[in-house]
Design a protein that fits this description.
alpha/beta; 3-stranded parallel sheet
């Protein structure tokens, strides 16, 4: 969902966008293939350290460093309990775009610290992400 939303944003904005996916997992090769399908320029940082629209960082021990350098935090989970990443994002006063499931609605303030969409609604998620990229702000 994030890759589709990123693609939608890239075709609609004139702003420079750089995105990062932090972590690793069994779906990594499928995500690379999806990037290729969507024509999103990407790099896998452990293998090729170059600037790209999307950087897959692999696992990071110092995620707070990535948080500090981010303008927007996006979470597209399909299954989530209480996401510490969103608690940390709010503490760092970063706007959030997230799917609304599990305990997410209990962690963020809807339309104040985060925009929320249903987990199968890429269009709403994309629009919310685009609005933040274009400069709209949330109440913090």
């Amino acid at each position: 969902m994030f890759l589709e939303a990123l693609h939608n944003v890239l075709v609609k904005t004139t702003k420079k966008v750089r995105a990062f996916i932090i972590g690793d997992g069994e779906e990594l090769q499928n995500l690379f293939a999806k990037c290729n399908d969507l024509k999103i320029d990407y790099t896998y940082f452990p293998d090729a350290q170059r600037k790209a629209t999307l950087t897959f960082t692999s696992w990071m021990r110092d995620a707070e460093r990535a948080l500090a350098g981010s303008d927007i935090i996006a979470l597209t989970s399909l299954n989530e309990g209480t996401p510490v990443s969103l608690i940390e994002a709010q503490a760092a006063r970063k706007p959030i775009v997230s799917t609304n499931l599990g305990g997410i609605e209990n962690v963020v303030l809807k339309n104040e610290t985060a925009f929320l969409s249903e987990s199968d609604d890429v269009n709403t998620f994309s629009s919310q992400l685009l609005s933040l990229v274009e400069g709209r702000t949330l109440k913090k």
